[in-house]
Amino acid sequence: MIEPIIHVGDCRRHMAEEISKGSVHTICASPPYWGGIRDYQIPKLIWGGNKACQHCFTVDDPVHSIGRRANPDVQGKHKYIWPLTIPPSGSTCELCEAWVGDYGCEPTLQAYIAHTLEIFEGFKRILRDDGVIWWNVGDTYSTGQGKAKSAGGGKSLIPHRVAIALQDVGWIVRQDNVWSKKSPMPESVHGWRWVRCRKKVGRLPASGGLTSWDMGEHSHGSPGAYRGDQKTVPRWEPCTGCSKCVANGGYVLRKGAWRSTGAHEYIFQITKSEKYFCDGDAVTEQVSGNAHSRGNGTNPKCLGGTLGNERQNESFSSAVNQLTETRNPRSVWSLSSECYKGAHFATYPTEIPYRCIRSSTSQAGVCVTCGSQYAPEVQSERVPTRPGRDTKVDGTSELQSGNRDPERHINRNVILGYRPTCCCAEQRAVPATVYDPFCGSGTTLQVAHWLGRNGIGSEIGEQYLPLIRERISKRPRCLAEKKPKKTRNHKHGKEQKHLFDSVDSSGN
């Protein structure tokens, strides 16, 4: 297996200077979400503005600047000339309005979308015309503190705002897959309720045990201060009676908000053109096991065209009348979280890049000359699943054929091999290329490496490189041996089990 290539620094520069044009077959990434949820302690970057500008930033407070900076002892306005002096995060160039900071910590949602489009400009250069992008985006609630304010502190609807902005500049959004989390983070939302009144009387260390207290007059006010650097939690005691609760028997009305617990995120499938490579046979899933044959597949409603615009027409019915072993994956992916002990707190399960990479890159590789991917050669077989039995019934109408497939056949697709999709003289395959512009802990590169793909990644935080290399060396959980899925028996399965024994003993 080929060792992945990891670039340290700004992914925009890597895409412009270090990755060949049209060399990437798929991009799979989970970028930082908007809202400043986490500070990854990474170098700050310039976003937007004029690239030819010699950026000049004038700010008031130099305390939080990174790198070489103006003299912090000097009071008043301080001027920073990029890159000789690096201004504080959140500064704006007074010449071209460029912004300094982390991607995801923008002051407005509009700025976050603009910076996302800036990243996708780099994708347009390195992604093949038949390539696919998988973009994982989460949402947040507006607080009105420098963010795009929505009525009543509602959802910002970031994922679809980003998707619509990408459509407006020419990208094709093929699907908005829903990552349904089986174990989401709990949310403290209860709605309106009467509760016992309490008061804060101090703080306790988070690990338990008593420590220094400031027990003075802290009833319904600021909590007692804990003297020290240890993390603390507030200490509560029942209220003995105050103006808020005395008239209600010691209860107060908490008018809290309520909503269902957020348990999903979006994974957008985005392409450059309508003709993009995809291998649906590589990601098929088992059927539930309780489907039934549709007979000859003809629905009486579609014969004769009673309405003229029926969805289930004759060609559709004939194509789906047979049972199958597998089905196309649904757009809702119910996945469990995976434990990761490394110093990174925003990892997604390995099953996500597994599905994305398998469906958009060929297992057999790509043409060494032009990079076109090999496509599977598939043969469909009709296979019986049980011994024959006379189940013929008298037809009661012209629509009944009289026999409902006593052997209960299913359609089984068999991959015979892979063929090139180009006409190049040298027919030799090399691994497809997968790119992740935000490596983080290296989940995408780990899966790509163990699937035999050529992985390329960008990571601005140099402190994450040991985590990435360590994770790549370990087999991902999605490739661990999986137990076969249990399917429900057919309703006549137990009654017909003896038929198999009789066939084996008779040899017929």
Please tell me about this protein's structure.
It is a single chain. With about 500 residues, this protein is of the alpha/beta class. It has 8 helices and 23 strands. The protein has helices spanning about 10-15, 110-125, 160-170, 315-320, 350-360, 445-450, 465-470, 495-505; strands spanning about 5-10, 25-30, 45, 55-60, 80, 100, 125-135, 170-180, 190-195, 200-205, 230-240, 250-255, 265-270, 285, 325, 325, 330-335, 365, 375-385, 410-420, 430, 435, 455-460. An 8-stranded mixed β-sheet has the order 1-23-22-2-7-13-8-17. The two termini are about 50 Å apart.
Keywords:
16% helix; three-stranded mixed β-sheet; 508 residues; eight-stranded mixed β-sheet; alpha/beta
Short structural description:
The chain has about 500 residues and is α/β, with parallel strands linked by helices. Helices cover about 15% and strands about 25% of the residues.
Topology:
Layout: E1 5-8, H1 11-17, E2 24-29, E3 45-47, E4 56-59, E5 78-81, E6 99-101, H2 109-126, E7 127-137, H3 158-168, E8 172-181, E9 192-196, E10 198-205, E11 232-238, E12 251-255, E13 264-271, E14 285-286, H4 314-319, E15 323-324, E16 326-327, E17 332-335, H5 351-360, E18 366-367, E19 375-383, E20 410-419, E21 429-430, E22 433-436, H6 443-450, E23 454-459, H7 465-472, H8 493-506
Parallel strand pairs: 1-23, 2-7, 2-22, 8-17, 15-20, 22-23
Antiparallel strand pairs: 3-6, 4-5, 7-13, 8-13, 9-12, 10-11, 14-16, 18-21, 19-20
Helix pairs in contact: 1-2, 2-3
